[in-house]
Amino acid sequence: MINPLNRLYDALIIGGGAAGLMAAGTAAKNGLHVCLLEKNSRPGRKLMITGKGRCNLTNNCDVQTFIASVPSNGRFLYSAVTQFTAQDTIRFFEDLGLPVKTERGNRVFPQSDKAADVVDKLTGFVRNSGADIITGEAKRLILKDHMVFGAELQDGSRILAGSVVICCGGASYPGTGSTGDGYRLARQAGHTVTPLRPSLVPLVAFGDECRDMMGLSLKNVSIKVFDTVKKKTIYEDFGEMLFTHFGVSGPMILSASAHMSGMSPDRYHILIDLKPALSLEQLDARVQRDFELNHNKDFSNSLSALLPSKMIPVMVAKSGIPADTKCNQITREMRRAFAGVLKSFELSISAFRPIEEAIVTSGGVKTAEINPKTMESKLVKGLYFAGEVIDVDAYTGGFNLQIAFCTGRLAANSLNSQEEKE
Q1: Which end of the chain has the smaller Cβ count within 10 Å, N or C?
Q2: Residue 409 in contact with residue 46, Cβ under 8 Å?
Q3: Is 299 helix (H, G, I), strand (E, B) or coil?
Q4: Which long-range CB contacts under 8 A does 354-357 form with residues at least 24 apart?
Q5: Contact status, residue 54 vs residue 208, Cβ threshold 8 Å
Q6: Contact 172, 197 (CB under 8 A)
Q7: Model pLDDT for residues 21-64, shown as the tens digit of each residue
Q8: DSSP classification of residue 422
Q9: d(Cα 406, Cα 78) in Å, to the nearest integer?
C-alpha cells in the first residue's frame, strides 16, 4: 500500500463508488496526479448490489427525459448530463470492453448481467489511468482561508491535494460504506445539508393483508398513489410489485416512494388494479363466466383462475362476500362490487422503511451552494461534489447511476480549469 503521509497530489477523490471511480479515472487520464481514497478494502461495493446484482448502468433516454426523471433539483444537472449523456455512458463502458444491452424502460445493463464486471472495468479504468488507490477514511478536510488543501485521515496521516472531490455517497445501505461521511465533511466546510430521507425505498402498510400475502410477486398490474392531503393522485405506474411481511416493495413501489414527500401515517393510499387490461365491465363479464363455470362451488373455491392462491383469502375478505357462498347465489350487485375490489385494491401506507434499506438518499449538500457548470463549491475553492452526496435523486431505472457518472465526470474535467491557489 502507498503511504499517504505527506504525499502531495493534484486531486484527492474521497469515495470509491460510481462517482468516485469515474472522477478519479477521468482526472488521472487528464494528466493529473490523483489519489482515490476508499474506506473499504475494494472500491465499488455498493455497485455490486445495484440492479439486483446486474447493475442498471444508465437509462438510454434523451436529456429532457432524464431531467424529468429527477424530481429533486433535476435542472441542476443540466450541464452535467448534457456534457456526459446516457449515450456517452454506454460508449464509455463499451470502449472499456464491456458490451451492454437496453431492456424494457430503456434500462441499460451489461450483457453479462454481472455487476462485478462493471466494478472491474471501472477499477481497471482508474488504475490504468495512473491514479493511486488508497484504503483509508477521511476524518476531516484541511481548510484555510476558504480553500481546501487535502484531508486528514482517521489514522492521523494526511493527504495533501490541490483539489478535493467528495464522492462519499448517501446514507443508504451503510453496510457498503455509505454512512454519511460526505455530509459530515460538507458541514465542516460550511455547507448546508438538506434533511435526509429514504428514496426508492419499500413502504410499510397498515393491517395484516400484506403479511398474509408475503412473498407474492405481481406482474403486469398498475398502481395509483393518492395523497389525502393534496386530495389528488400523485403517481401512476404499470409493472411489478411484491408483498412483504411489512408492506410492499418492488420496482413500481420504489419509484412511487420518490413522490411521497412529507410522509405521515395514512397520508398516502395505494390503489392496485389487478386487471388493468380489462375495463370494469369486461372484468365483471369475466367474473360472471367464472361463476357460471363454478356455479355449485363455494365463492372462495372459484377464484383460482383469476387470482394467485395467496391472494384469494385476502380478496374474499375484502369483498364482503361470505367464503362459503355458492357462486349461483351471488347477486349481480355483489359480483360487480367484487370486480370493483379487483380494479382498486387499496392499501394505506404508514411509513417508509428505514433509510438503511433505501436504494438512494433524498436530500444532501444544497445545490444552491454548488456551481452546476463545474460541481465546485461556491464556498470553498478547490472543493467539489459528485454523486449521491448532492441533494439530487431520481426514479429507479438507471437514472441515479447516470447522476453519479455525469457529475463525477464533470467534476474531474473541471479540475484542470481551476486557477492556481495563492
Answers
A1: C
A2: no
A3: helix
A4: 354/198, 355/171, 355/172, 355/196, 355/197, 355/198, 355/201, 356/171, 356/172, 356/173, 356/174, 357/172, 357/173, 357/198, 357/201, 357/202
A5: no
A6: no
A7: 999 999 999 999 999 999 988 888 878 877 778 999 999 999 99
A8: -
A9: 10
